[in-house]
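Design job #97: recover the sequence.
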């Protein structure tokens, strides 16, 4: 006896314009496409993950329910390892792997530092840098001021003045919030044990069309049932932005106590697409601020160790848009907070969610 479900399925197949053979091939192709995507995602994520994290990622396809697409993709891995490889799967792997997973920003040295002597290569997983720090002298400092970050028009002529100002202010704000963990931040121009000076030396625009496609694909998957485990959708790896910045901290006598030349590009897997030419530069500006602040707070390279630390309460509250620890940070405006987080997930330009620096009243 055939069940009602079997009869209904049979009826659907009879009414369908496509034969059973095509439907089976279609399901196999979909499984192979997901397998290709997951294999490439894991391969691209490997350089950024620790051994234990990578092991957990590899077990993910086999740890979920049998009915989920992820589990079926995991089963395809086993078939791939045991049997002949499908030409379609090989084609997909070749095509996706050929695309760059991130934009590699060059380390562009400018002319704004008082000295470039003693800079040593110190790279992170996705960041390149040359830096040095005099740990004892920096540790003895109590107060710090932050000069306005320089972003000359010729560095990124395709960005508007408003966009360059927004990126430069994002550097200052990130520096101010992170440095507040260790130093007393005073207003720019005020006497301080250390003064930070930074300048953007290289920046490329984000491809707005590619970012828009990435946002649409990411939002679209929210309305599709993908099983119990969400499938991460990487960005379209085209037109990813880059940023390079140099900065130094000098003492009251103008002697350099720390310096860095820093470069990073947006990645297809870890960067949020924003439909703005300044989208990636804006996000990378915040990353630079945190890295250079870590160099000064700890007196050592920010790219050593486990790469993760629990943020302080003042840092959390400042990043969600509450009042910063020191009044000097108010001049850079409040962080966009929850509105900025939601806007970033929806791909809104930072010009829409960030009010920028606080206007200085004129007398």
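Job complete. Output follows.
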């Amino acid at each position: 006896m055939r069940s009602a479900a079997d009869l209904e399925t049979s009826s659907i197949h009879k009414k369908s314009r496509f034969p059973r053979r095509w439907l089976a091939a279609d399901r196999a192709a979909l499984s192979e496409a997901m397998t290709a995507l997951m294999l490439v995602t894991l391969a691209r994520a490997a350089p950024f993950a620790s051994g234990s994290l990578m092991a957990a990622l590899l077990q993910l396809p086999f740890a979920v329910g049998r009915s989920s697409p992820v589990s079926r993709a995991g089963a395809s891995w086993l078939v791939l390892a045991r049997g002949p490889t499908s030409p379609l799967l090989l084609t997909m792997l070749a095509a996706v792997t050929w695309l760059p997973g991130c934009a590699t920003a060059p380390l562009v040295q400018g002319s704004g530092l008082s000295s470039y002597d003693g800079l040593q290569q110190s790279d992170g997983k996705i960041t390149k840098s040359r830096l040095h720090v005099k740990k004892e002298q920096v540790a003895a400092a109590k107060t710090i001021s932050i000069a306005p970050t320089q972003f000359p028009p010729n560095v990124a002529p395709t960005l508007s003045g408003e966009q360059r100002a927004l990126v430069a202010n994002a550097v200052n704000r990130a520096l101010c919030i992170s440095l507040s963990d260790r130093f007393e931040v005073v207003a720019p121009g005020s006497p301080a044990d250390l003064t930070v000076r930074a300048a953007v030396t290289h920046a490329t625009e984000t491809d707005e069309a590619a970012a828009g496609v990435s946002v649409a694909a990411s939002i679209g998957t929210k309305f599709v049932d993908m099983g119990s485990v969400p499938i991460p959708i990487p960005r379209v790896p085209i037109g990813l932005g880059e940023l390079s910045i140099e900065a130094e901290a000098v003492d009251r006598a103008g002697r350099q106590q720390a310096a860095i030349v820093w470069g990073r590009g947006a990645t297809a897997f870890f960067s949020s697409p924003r439909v703005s030419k300044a989208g990636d530069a804006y996000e990378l500006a915040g990353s630079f601020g945190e890295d250079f602040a870590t160099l000064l707070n700890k007196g050592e390279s920010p790219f050593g160790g486990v790469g993760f630390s629990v943020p302080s309460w003042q840092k959390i509250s400042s990043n969600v848009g509450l009042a910063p620890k020191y009044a000097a940070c108010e001049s850079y405006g409040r962080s966009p907070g929850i509105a900025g987080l939601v806007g970033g997930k929806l791909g809104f330009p930072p010009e829409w969610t960030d009010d920028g620096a606080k206007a200085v009243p004129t007398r």
